[in-house]
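Journal club prep, notes for RB
We'll compare a predicted complex against what the paper describes. Inputs for the manganese (II) ion case:
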Amino acid sequence: MKKRIAILPGDGIGPEVMQGAVRVLQAISDCFQHDFIFEEGLIGGAAIDECGNPLPDTTLDLCSKSDAILLGAVGGPKWEATSQTIRPEQGLLRIRKELGLFANLRPVCAYEPLIHASTLKKEVIEHVDLLIVRELTGGLYFGKPSERRGDNKELAVDTLVYNIQEIERVVDKAFQLARKRRKKLTSVDKANVLESSRMWREVVNRLSANYPDVQVEHMLVDSASMQLIYRPEQFDVIVTENLFGDILSDEASMITGSLGMLPSASLRSDAVGLYEPVHGSAPDIAGKNLANPLGMVLSVALMLKFSFGLDKEASIIEESVMKVLNDGFHTGDLHLQQGTRVSTTKMVNKIIDSINENQAIS
Ligand code: NAD
Ligand code: IPM
Ligand code: MN
């Protein structure tokens, strides 16, 4: 299969984990004789440094022509001053918006070999297998006005706005996903306070008539954040507004033991998607070969599955990650008493070895 993949490494640990992703994909293409064409583009701080724009037109063109996009992470202290008007994160928000990637899927499950890396008790997390569906192109991140106001700029405004179609399409996507899983959908909102949440709730209730086989519940976001660490196994699919989904997914990552474990897929109605780990550029460990590459590598598996329909190849990556974790290898972000702590590149080497072994057997 021939596919064009845009590679956007970004900043901090982005390029380190991206290198791992590309090497894993090369191993997969060698095993299965696929023709993956990798084309690199600038985004984030790296793009600001090079051309003063966090999302240059050349990168957007590249993404528009590609079958899928892989993104590392953007941002870092160099571009962080509150006075800065051009910011790396704007590149990420714009690419999501320009490409219409409204549904961000963030799966979270407990990995048996990592159970003791979590700060939560084994019995709380061991059966967790949930999926956060985060609305990605609306809500507080994109509402206008968003600005400082007045001569002294002593008033700041952000706006939470949704139109009904934006809610319908992401909720419908979440229902479809729930139908293929354990058929439970939890819609998370703040309907006791926010008008947009009340509209959100109405949409969920109306669309639920199309999915009589899916059990629906509504949960307020403050309570949901508590339930997520109290009894996380109760959740199957969670659908929620952009900012709520951002926050809840970082919280949920601790079920796995590290933010570095979580992959994500940002999708629209056709097969094109953007795949990135949930974590950021981790400036505290950047450039040290310490980053956990698994969130990025598991995002590659999501790309193979969702954008290319290569389910077997995706499964081999996921199985290889499990094998390597079962063999005790892990990066330093996972606080485990046992096993072997390895670097980013060593972790990737182990995964590639496992992919090759898997293929040699079959
Ligand atoms: P972060 O996710 O970068 O890091 C939070 C903590 O988790 C840090 O201690 C970091 O070392 C650790 N961590 C994250 N990913 C890891 C990995 N793969 N392996 C090992 N440890 C990992 O969040 P932050 O520190 O709040 O933000 C840093 C920068 O990243 C900011 O500029 C922020 O805007 C940006 N950011 C970007 C994205 C993205 O590009 N999608 C996501 C979140 C944050
Ligand atoms: C994420 C990040 C981004 C977000 C930032 C960097 C803009 O936190 O992808 O989760 O808030 O969406
Ligand atoms: Mn985030």
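Talking point for the session: The pocket of manganese (II) ion (ligand 3) is lined by residues 246, 250 (CB under 6 Å).
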